[in-house]
Design goal:
6-stranded antiparallel β-barrel, alpha+beta, 5 helices, 369 residues, 35% strand, rod-shaped
């Protein structure tokens, strides 16, 4: 195996203080390693690409001659097998068609062993094995080209060998054709068809190899703080709001249960990490207005938030809420006997702390893909 250490620098900025990373990808082991270049080269779990950062891709155990072969092939494509001058020797037409194309294509020694191509931090295509499979076909055609060139010379020599009879020349020529192409009946039309078949096989292999020229690495973008606004529904719980106070027939303060929660229409401002993948946690602050009841006092909502989906269209939030509630006043307690006849005089309005859960929608990102 010949080795190539190629450096491909993708510059996103030119500042001296920009962070630099290096990805080493080994075509033998199908493994990648990430390194941070900051004075000393330190191995890291992944690449956090900054705005002015730079990534260096270092490819190891890659054969450098593949690229020369590919360029050579596409610079001198297979000639159309239509204009053959030598009708006596149709096999030379095939040899001529491949001679310029295959001339100079070196041996490509890529690993044949298959790998699973998986990595915890990256998504790869198993291109090395695919290169080997496709280039094996190219090598076979290259070898066939060399063989045809040799047969062409042998037929030329045989044609002018005056020491042999015509029958001997035809017999040996037929044997040469059979050994190289598997048929002893070769005319110009057959030569054209055979040449075109090799052309199709070669171009197919080269096209597949060119499409396989890709590896995918996951680069985490700069973890900037994202700010989103949303509108949705919230549900609050307050102990005081869940209790109804009244005066019994015996003039004793009593209580009964009310609705477990109050629905609100709410709007939030969310702030959370700008990481590119995984769960995105952050905080949320919002306000809500009750949808039921006579009182429409504003509820204040503060808590944690989680963003879901591509472009974060759905946000789930939960935390503490603050709002005015009716609480017993003037030292009144449940079970106390009072002279009052109206329960409204037992309570007063004041702020209290409760809890909330909310599902809201980032309307600006709902339609984005």
């Amino acid at each position: 195996m010949r080795y190539l250490i190629g450096l491909l620098a993708i510059a996103a900025g030119t500042t001296a203080s920009a962070q630099q990373y290096m990805i080493k990808y080994d075509l033998n082991s199908f493994k990648s390693n990430y390194y941070k270049i900051d004075g000393d080269t330190t191995k890291v779990r992944n690449v956090n690409l900054k705005k002015n950062g730079r990534v260096i891709l270092k490819v190891e155990n890659f054969n450098p001659f593949y690229w020369n072969a590919k360029v050579t092939s596409y610079k001198t494509p297979v000639q159309d097998e239509a204009g053959f001058a030598n009708a006596f020797n149709p096999i030379s037409a095939i040899a001529q068609g491949f001679g310029s194309l295959m001339n100079g294509i070196p041996l490509l020694d890529l690993p044949n062993a298959k790998g699973n191509g998986t990595d915890a931090n990256s998504r790869f295509l198993n291109t090395a094995a695919a290169y080997a499979d496709n280039y094996k076909k190219v090598q076979e055609i290259s070898e066939k080209s060399d063989e045809l060139q040799l047969v062409k010379l042998q037929l030329q020599e045989l044609k002018f060998d005056f020491s042999k009879t015509e029958t001997q020349i035809k017999t040996e020529a037929k044997e040469l054709v059979r050994s190289s192409l598997g048929t002893d009946s070769l005319n110009l039309l057959n030569a054209v068809n055979i040449g075109k078949q090799y052309t199709v096989e070669l171009n197919t292999s080269l096209d597949e190899m060119s499409r396989l020229n890709a590896q995918f690495f996951q680069l985490n973008g700069k973890k900037a703080l994202k700010v989103r606004n949303s509108v949705g529904a919230a549900f609050t719980y307050f102990t005081a709001n869940n209790t109804n106070y009244f005066i019994g027939a015996d003039s004793v303060i009593r209580k009964s249960g009310k609705d477990l929660f109050n629905p609100l229409i709410s709007t939030f401002v969310h702030f959370y990490s700008g990481r590119m993948a995984g769960i995105k946690l952050g905080g949320a602050f919002g306000i809500g207005i009750p949808l039921t009841g006579e009182k429409k006092d504003i509820n204040f909502l503060l808590g944690l938030t989680t963003a879901f989906g591509q472009n974060e269209p759905i946000l789930l939030s939960f935390g503490v809420s603050g709002a005015k509630v009716n609480k017993l006043t003037n030292g009144y307690e449940v079970g106390q006997k009072v002279k009052e006849t109206s329960a409204d005089k037992l309570v007063s309005s004041g702020y209290d702390i409760g809890g909330f859960v909310s599902v809201s929608f980032n309307l600006s990102n709902l339609g984005k893909k």
